[in-house]
Amino acid sequence: MSVSDRAFAGSIPKLYDDHLVPLIFEPYANDAAQRLRALSPSRVLEIAAGTGVVTRALAAALDADAQIVATDLNQAMLNQAAAIGTARPVRWQQADAQDLPFDEGSFDAVVCQFGAMFFPDKARAFAQARRVLRPGGTFVFSVWDRIETNEFADAVTAALATRIPQDPPRFLARTPHGYYERDAITRDVAAGGFSRPARIDTIAARSRAASAYEPAFAYCQGTPLRNEIEARGVALGEATQIAAAEIARRFGSGAVDGAIRAHVISVQA
To answer: In 39-64, which positions are buried (b, 16+ CB within 10 angstroms) versus exposed (e)?
Structure first.
């Protein structure tokens, strides 16, 4: 993983929340919130909270007395999340998922939406989640399935490869869509110290936008993909137009509708 893959800085946090969150993240955030609601937790830790789409869903779905602590390694993303706000008070705290600053057994549930792909040492991060869970507590996390099952991301990646064939930007395939193999996930969960079997649900949804330009803009300018584009000397506007043309070629020139698919993993401590 490139260092730039984790560089959610500058204008990225706001663009990410304004454009990418409604495009692909909201359906899975609602799913995560309902899964945790069924557990009736008193204290929940969210890791890799990003700009807070799951945090907001949890704040709306959980019992009124449930405490929510939302963390992320990237302070800029947390600042964006806090600026948007939640339906109830939430404790925002910068924290490394691989070295959580919380006591053992201090949470009933730990949740992480689309963050595990960015952990350099996934087993270590999972071990930290297990450590802070009470016995019988539940860890719920999600990862994207392979890029071919996430059609807009696949189209953007293919389009940019035609513009920069000698060194194509591979952020989307390498990192967000690079940790999808069930056996690898199961091994890492077990290596993190979870002795009970993990349940993996593969959930398909749809990604919809009013035009091909919207997902192209979201991916090219609202994610660390923009760091790779700019590093190769290509203007963001040009890259976005190239990606939009490929999405329009595949899905039409009007409103577009593409498949998205992810794995949701649940395991008890």
So the answer is: bebebbbbbbbbbbbbbbbbbebbee
